[in-house]
Specification:
220 residues; alpha/beta; Rossmann fold
């Protein structure tokens, strides 16, 4: 049976990488094979393109060309890493995927929606996420967390505050449009609380046969 595909999305400092690792641990305890990965990147070819994208080297080419490079990286990532893992029955947890392109390049970069969707069809094909967590934090909270890490800001992190406010809105709106796939999680809570909420959702949506969700809610 095909494995399950879970993606994490959200703004800067929303805690995605921590939650990817915590969810992977919980699944591994259940003896499920888990592959954790990220975008841009996740395969040798895509990691090479990651540097071009995050350093801002391709920014002068304009938003459409930049989107195509994100798509080229995704194509390699899906073919080399995600599909083989899903085919052998592993679960894949990915830090950012199609929704980042829809939001950063589509909503904020004003790249034509038809271009975004066409590239998505070509790159993703049947590797659509089964479940997407949108980790939501107010922009000030996310910024304070990034500040605390003390890392150099990448091409997107250095955008002005208004950009990040719109980004948050765009992720929330996307989640409203696709409630069957997307779940918004309040990520201002402690990492453990956020992880528990995520775990409950995974149990309800992916681990449990239909119709038994209420029973487990009572059990947790
Ligand atoms: P990264 O260093 O992975 O940080 P984080 O996910 O913690 O923010 O940065 C990835 C950056 O690339 C992030 O600012 C969002 C951006 N991005 C896009 O603009 N489009 C995309 O399709 C993807 C996958 C990422």
């Amino acid at each position: 049976m095909r494995g399950r595909f879970i993606t994490f999305e959200g703004g800067e400092g929303s805690g995605k990488s921590t939650q990817v690792a915590l969810l992977a641990d919980r699944l591994r305890i259940r003896s499920i094979e888990v592959v954790t990965t990220r975008e841009p990147g996740g395969s040798p070819g895509a990691e090479a393109m990651r540097h071009l994208l995050l350093s801002g080297l391709v920014k002068p080419l304009g938003p459409t060309a930049e989107t195509m490079i994100f798509a080229a990286a995704r194509d390699d990532h899906v073919q080399q890493t995600i599909k083989p893992a899903l085919t052998r029955g592993a679960w894949v947890i990915c830090d950012r995927f199609i929704d980042s392109t829809r939001v950063y390049q589509g909503e904020l970069g004003n790249v034509d929606r038809r271009v975004i969707r066409a590239l998505e069809r070509v790159t993703v094909r049947d590797a659509m996420p089964d479940l997407t967590f949108i980790l939501d934090v107010p922009v000030e909270v996310g910024f304070a967390r990034v500040e605390k890490r003390g890392q150099v800001r990448d091409r997107f992190e250095s955008e002005h505050i208004e950009f990040h406010i719109q980004l948050r809105e765009a992720f929330l709106s996307l989640a409203r449009d696709e409630p069957q796939r997307c779940v918004v999680i309040d990520a201002t809570q402690s990492p453990e609380t956020v992880a528990s909420r995520i775990w409950l959702t995974v149990i309800e949506r992916l681990l449990q046969p239909r119709g038994t969700a209420t029973a487990s809610r009572a059990a947790s």
